[in-house]
Design a protein that fits this description.
Elements (H helix, E strand, L loop, with lengths): L1 H9 L4 H12 L3 H22 L8 H19 L5 H32 L6 H24 L4 H22 L20 H30 L4 H29 L1 H21 L4 H28 L4 H30 L3 H20 L7
Helix pairs in contact: 1-5, 1-6, 1-7, 2-7, 2-8, 3-5, 3-12, 4-5, 4-7, 5-12, 6-7, 6-9, 6-11, 8-9, 8-10, 8-11, 8-12, 8-13, 9-10, 9-11, 10-11, 10-13, 11-12, 12-13
Length: 372
């Protein structure tokens, strides 16, 4: 939970509440902000592809901790420059670090839970994303009271990450413990069902990331104030924490793929609510529905992929993380350009909602002999 808070909740998503302040202080366009976000997601894609090989066997723990340390340092680095190219490089490297944690540390945690017959606790691991979002939102709100600028937010993010890293360092089992290294895996076989799920997962990456990147900018457009911006992001994070557990309960009753599709539909409703409803109601509802779904859908998709991957669960995790990352790269760039062209986030949100609908259809239409 702490590792996902650092690598994902803070390392990846703290950019969302800090973004409006950066745009205002540096005079950035929405397209430029989208390119910075896309650079992070490009790094995530590259990191996932690199992590997919067997070269890291036996080094998963060391690489996970090093990646968490790098994510911490890169938060601090964002506060030390105002150069657009530097932002691109820093966020790219942060994306690589996030992917390494997602692949390497998740493989340790999942393998350890499987050996203990406690795979039901995977929701706590993914719930760490919400913990990181909630912590960073609270930090941004506190700094807003003191009228600190965007640089202080990045320094605060580094401080939160460092504290969590120290705890992870002590708690993460060494080789031979409950975690340890995952065994080497054979080549991944792409069945028709797996191909369709990978496509669904990648398109979902496009669909969710528009709101996940620009939600607080949408709030800023409503001139609601920095504190209320942080409140929207706080409720988003709080909604994440129980979401994986609750959606997993639904999946056990109705099946992984139908629940994945329903989750996409609920998220699409939140995406449209954030821009279609006036005042704070739309962004608040959009944040709640985003937080309630995007991590849970991520976890459900990975579980579907693992069920279809046979003896290659880490390889399918890498492939699906890469597909997800590709969707995330395209999403902020397209959304930023469309927002600049149209003068707002309504039409980018429409595109995101349509993508989520396509992802739901692909998941439902996939054929598999494995029980989901």
């Amino acid at each position: 939970m702490l590792s996902m808070a650092v690598a994902m909740g803070i390392g990846r998503f703290v950019y969302t509440p800090i973004l409006p302040g950066m745009m205002a202080a540096l005079g950035q366009t929405t397209s430029e902000a989208g390119f910075i976000a896309a650079s992070n997601y490009t790094g995530y894609l590259v990191g996932a592809l690199i992590a997919g090989g067997g070269w890291a066997h036996g080094w998963e723990r060391a690489l996970s901790l090093a990646s968490l340390a790098l994510s911490t340092a890169l938060c601090l680095a964002m506060a030390l420059t105002d150069d657009f190219v530097a932002f691109l490089v820093i966020r790219f490297a942060a994306g690589v670090a996030s992917a390494f944690v997602m692949v390497f540390l998740s493989s340790i945690i999942f393998a350890g839970l499987a050996r203990l017959d406690r795979s039901d606790l995977q929701w706590m691991h993914f719930g760490g994303v919400g913990v990181g979002i909630a912590l960073s939102a609270s930090m941004v709100a506190l700094l807003a009271f003191g009228q600190f600028g965007w640089r202080a937010n990045w320094i605060g993010a580094a401080g939160l990450s460092l504290a969590a890293l120290a705890a992870v360092w002590l708690l993460l089992p060494r080789a031979g413990g409950q975690g340890g290294s995952a065994p080497k895996e054979p080549a991944l076989v792409f069945s028709p069902a797996l191909k369709r799920i990978v496509w669904a997962y990648g398109i979902f990456g496009f669909g969710y990331v528009v709101t996940a990147t620009f939600l607080i900018a949408i709030v800023r457009d409503n001139e609601s104030g920095a504190v209320l911006e942080a409140v929207v992001w706080l409720v988003t994070g709080l909604a994440v924490i129980p979401s994986v557990y609750l959606w997993a309960l639904a999946a056990r009753r109705w099946g992984l793929r139908p629940v994945f599709a329903v989750g996409c539909g609920v998220e699409a409703a939140g995406v449209m609510a954030s821009v279609a409803l006036g005042g704070m109601t739309g962004p608040l509802l959009g944040g709640i529905l985003l937080g309630n779904t995007f991590v849970a859908i991520t976890a459900l998709g990975i579980q579907i992929g693992r069920n279809l991957a046979g003896p290659s669960p880490r390889k399918v995790l890498s492939v699906m993380t890469a597909a997800f990352g590709l969707g995330q790269i395209v999403g902020p760039v397209v959304a930023g350009m469309v927002a600049d062209w149209t003068g707002g986030f309504f039409w980018p949100s429409v595109l995101a909602a349509l993508a989520l609908a396509v992802s739901a259809w692909l998941a439902l239409s996939s054929k598999t002999a494995a029980r989901s």
